[in-house]
Write a structure and sequence with these properties.
Elements lengths: L3 E6 L2 E8 L4 E4 L11 H12 L8 H16 L3 E5 L4 H14 L3 E7 L7 H12 L4 E5 L1 H8 L5 H27 L3 E5 L4 H7 L25 E3 L7 H10 L4 H4 L19 H21 L7 E15 L2 E14 L7 E2 L4 H14 L3 E6 L13
Parallel strand pairs: 4-5, 4-7, 5-6, 7-8, 10-12
Antiparallel strand pairs: 1-2, 2-3, 9-10, 10-11
Helix pairs in contact: 2-3, 2-8, 3-8, 5-6, 10-11
Length: about 375
């Protein structure tokens, strides 16, 4: 139909096709992901040189459009928001606060699987630095009791997703009773990569894993979702955060999954294993900050494996858990390379974790890229 091949590889005859008369082009790859050489140049050439798009759009426009639309949608009602303290939920919460003020009620759910002292840190930062109306719900026992004996990662995610919504619906009812106001909306910091991995959205993409805030939501959920970041990538969310004036520490925090450490503990989630992972994770993040590598890394964390190994401590034999450090370089989180962490930093991490965290006697380093591996292990 007038198309001709423009580019090919040994494995694909038609990587790029064009019909210059009809001004139509087709690509059989993703120019938007980090691993595509000159990907941004390809998109720029199409948008500006071919389509003639104007370069007058800025992130503050996105914020202003959302604020106007949400005011019209919500009216005088109240909104409850899921906040974890990560950049996604922080940016979403600040946006909603700018839109409707104290009628936005942010909720941090402590599901027993947060990082060490995370609830205290998030409450302080969100209230004092971001001006967000935030409360913390201690639901540790509720989540951990439901996760007892569960080892399948998909089941974990759906249990956590369902329980999150139960908690939010209960909190929304409390807000309505306290304020005599209608609270029927739920704000979430869902990103486009979450949607792509969870459901087929705007194309024939396969389900890779269920994200608790997408495919893990129950059919009985009464709250209506508001997701201002649903079509943004992580680097765009950070750009939006900076445009909103959010402090750099909050904007550049590494992502933390909604299910928390539950999906970084392979196998059964127990209180003892959560405590072990919290301590190991805290040491690794501390060493990355000390060594100046934290900002160079897209995401870093520790995974506790369902495997034990023999070790020696002093004159005694140990038989304890194996853990793995995961550090990746990425901007869009659709693709990622393992971060080439210097051996001396690895050595310090290993020494500290094994000597300071009772329950771990072996520390590994994950050198897998995405794809084929995902960033999170579960």
């Amino acid at each position: 139909d007038g198309f001709k091949a423009v580019a090919a590889t040994p494995n694909a005859e038609f990587v790029t096709i064009e019909n210059s008369e009809r001004k139509m082009w087709g690509l059989q790859f993703h120019p938007e992901v980090t691993h595509s050489p000159l990907g941004k140049t390809i998109l720029s050439n199409f948008c500006i040189k071919i389509a003639g798009a104007k370069q007058d759009w800025v992130m503050t426009d996105y914020a202003n459009e959302f604020i106007e639309s949400v005011r019209a949608k919500v009216g005088e009602h109240h909104v409850i928001g899921a906040v974890s303290g990560g950049v996604d939920s922080t940016v979403a919460a600040v946006l909603m606060t700018r839109a409707i003020g104290d009628r936005f009620h942010a909720v941090l759910v402590d599901n027993g699987c947060l990082r060490k002292d995370e609830a205290k840190k998030v409450l302080k930062r969100m209230r004092e630095d971001c001006g967000v109306n935030l409360r913390c719900v201690d639901a540790c026992d509720r989540f951990l009791d439901k996760l007892a004996g569960v080892t399948d990662p998909e089941q974990k995610r759906k249990i956590i997703g369902n329980t999150f919504i139960e908690v939010f619906q209960e909190e929304a009812t409390k807000i309505e009773n306290d304020l005599n106001g209608n609270c029927e909306y739920l704000l979430q910091g869902t990103l486009y990569p979450d949607v792509i991995e969870s459901i087929s959205y705007k194309g024939p993409s396969a389900t890779i894993k269920t994200h608790h805030n997408v495919g893990g939501l129950p059919d009985t959920m009464k709250l209506k979702l508001i997701e201002p970041l649903r079509e943004l990538f992580k680097d765009e969310v950070r750009e939006l955060g900076m445009a909103l004036g959010i402090d750099e520490t909050s904007v550049w925090r590494h992502p933390f999954p909604g299910p928390g450490l539950a999906i970084r503990i392979l196998g059964e989630v127990t209180r003892d294993r959560v405590k072990i992972l919290q301590e190991a994770d805290d040491i690794v993040i501390e060493e990355l900050l000390k060594s100046g590598h934290y900002r160079k890394i897209g995401q870093a964390f520790v995974v506790l494996l369902p495997v034990k190994s023999v070790g020696v401590m002093g004159d005694g034999r140990t038989y304890e858990w194996v853990a793995s450090v995961r550090c990746v370089e990425t901007t869009d989180y659709m693709t990622a390379d393992f971060y080439h962490l210097p051996y001396d930093v690895m050595g310090t991490m290993s020494s500290r974790v094994i000597n300071e965290v009772r329950g771990i006697n072996r520390l590994c380093y994950d050198i897998s890229s995405k794809p084929p591996a995902t960033i999170e292990w579960e």
